[in-house]
Amino acid sequence: MKAGLIANYYALKALLENGLKPAGTVILQSVIEEETMAGGGTLACLLEGFTADGLIITEPNMKIIIAHPGVIFFKVKVIGKSAHAGMAHTGVNAIGKMNRVYDALVELDEKRAQDNRYPLFEKQSGRSCHLNIGTCRAGDWISTVAGWAELDCRMSHLPAESVDEVKRQVQQAVTRAAEGDEWLRQHPPEVIWYERQVIPWEQAPDDPFILAFKSVADSTLKSDIDIVGATWGMDTRFAPFFNMPAISFGPDGENIHGVNEYVAIDSVIDCTKVLAAFIMDWCGVQKA
User: Can you give the pTM of this predicted structure?
Assistant: First the structure.
């Protein structure tokens, strides 16, 4: 994301330092909260009237992205029975009980990956949807049988899928996991849905803005740049509410959200060149 901001900045800087001023208005927004799926960044700017004829989000990927899935978030809570570690046999360890729920969610994730296909997503990531178990918390301390356990999960769904149906699938998987255990039948796991969610986004590939950008990117990089979908949510989803076409195109990175996350410096330069060339093509230029 920071690399994309640098590419945006230097695309404009290069034009101005070479005596070229965009004939149209170019707005550079440096925003917050994209990772939290909140509206305090890009959406806040759009609501204040900072809109244009098109939107480019410079997420880390040197492909032209025109779609992403919806994303929902939930927590699963399991209750056990606390006891002193010296009397652990009298307690019920919630960690062990949660293992059944974990396995059921993994099974649901694998089934959904087989049953739900979206070519643009698979072209980019090799898979269309994911159920990620992101955090696990349990117990109070080492000498007490864990009386509780929680999983926090992030789940994506295809644009055509009903959110209610996806939630039903999760609840069904958790309920089935509990049915096979006497304790969980008597103390059912609780599924709690977070209010925040990401709506799916799809951009028509034949929009003049997208066609013009691809033409410039192809000629600048001397390559046929793929049009794909992302399997994560982005701020591009706000664009349709303001009648703007949108794409994501930014410097290439690897190990995103992982160990040794990095961006390829050459791709930052290439992205900068494409953005500068597109500004000249789309807006036109005049002497500064």
Answer: 0.90
Task: Name the token pair of 145.
Answer: 């049988």
Count of residues for the chain? 288
| Measured torsion, CA atoms of residues 88, 92, 98, 104, in degrees rounded to the nearest 10 | 120
Q: Is the same domain home to 17 and 58? A: yes
87 and 112 belong to one structural domain: yes
Residue 255's region, left for phi above 0, alpha for psi from -120 to 50, else beta, is left
pLDDT tens-digit readout, 112-151: 999 999 999 999 899 999 999 999 999 999 999 999 999 9
Q: Find the domain containing 171 and state its range.
A: 70-198
How close are the terminal C-alpha atoms of the chain, in Å? 29
Question: What is the per-residue pLDDT across 273-284, written as a single tens digit (0 to 9) for each?
Answer: 999 999 999 999
Fill in the amino acid letter for 54: G
Backbone angles phi, psi at 126, to 5 degrees: 80, 0
Q: Are 42 and 63 contained in the same domain?
A: yes
- Please report which helix (H) or strand (E) contains residue 68, including its range: strand 67-68
Say whether 125 sits in a helix, a strand or coil. Answer: helix
Shared-domain flag, residues 257 and 223: yes
